[in-house]
Design a protein that fits this description.
The protein has strands spanning about 10-20, 25-30, 40, 45, 65-70, 75-80, 95-100, 105-110, 115-120, 210, 215, 225, 225-230. It is mainly beta and about 230 residues long. Pfam families: Phage_base_V.
Length: about 230
């Protein structure tokens, strides 16, 4: 069995505030008040993963952190930020995970209510991928926008429902050709203008009159040899 000699003093736990940042190496220097405002060497900040998967998040300047230093105080690691009376905890629940950003954006998951919330000052949400994206729920899927909703498809956009698709809007505009493979039912009238007019292949059944260039189909007369004829039967 090999003999292992230990240093006279083991590593110690200290608390201080971040004085400098090095974003390129994910390191910081920490000011330690209990050691006469000693400024540490550049110390790595502990991350959850750094090889295949990578986690990157530096503590801010002035943020209180816990530091593990070696016996001589020359090397160590920043274990992470800590809460205090000045920097109070934002959530008081053992069932919640939350990340709150300085611009007001908040990501929160409540395992008690099984609810994921994205709120606050989030101005843009970008999901950029070459894979398929599926939104699937057994309940209601709601999209609510205060201004505009834009759905762009490079080739085809399909809306599929087992029952009915409803469009509830004061006006609906379709730029391009409209093909309907089922019956069309109109309850508020219909107006067609421009293009080549309207073409119907097949029979047309009209309950009421048909007016063409101001002439009534039901009430029009023709001029015969002995005067106007009677309206069509």
């Amino acid at each position: 069995m090999n003999d292992v000699s230990l240093p006279d003093a083991l590593a110690t736990l200290k608390f201080g505030s971040v004085a400098e940042q090095d974003p390129d190496t994910h390191r910081v220097r920490v000011r330690l008040p209990e050691l006469g405002q000693l400024l540490t060497a550049w110390l790595p900040v502990l991350s959850r993963k750094s090889l295949k998967d990578k986690d990157y998040w530096l503590p801010d300047i002035g943020e209180q952190v816990a530091v593990l230093l070696d016996a001589r105080g020359e090397d160590g690691v920043v274990l992470g930020a800590i809460y205090s009376e000045q920097d109070a905890v934002p959530v008081k629940s053992a069932d919640k995970w939350q990340r709150r950003f300085s611009d007001g954006a908040v990501l929160e998951y409540d395992r008690k209510d099984s609810q994921l919330t994205v709120s606050g000052a989030v101005k843009h949400v970008l999901v950029q991928t070459q894979a398929d994206i599926t939104l699937k729920t057994q309940n209601t899927l709601t999209g609510d926008a205060g201004d505009a909703v834009l759905i762009k498809g490079g080739n085809t956009i399909t809306l599929q429902a087992g029952g009915k698709v409803s469009i509830n809007a004061p006006a609906t505009e379709i730029s391009g050709t409209l093909t309907v493979k089922g019956a069309i039912t109109g309850q508020g009238g219909m107006a067609v203008s421009g293009g080549g007019g309207a073409t119907v292949s097949g029979s047309v059944n009209v309950s009421g009159d048909v007016i063409a260039s101001g002439k009534s189909l039901v009430g029009h007369n023709h001029m015969g040899a002995h005067g106007p004829t009677s309206p069509p039967l």
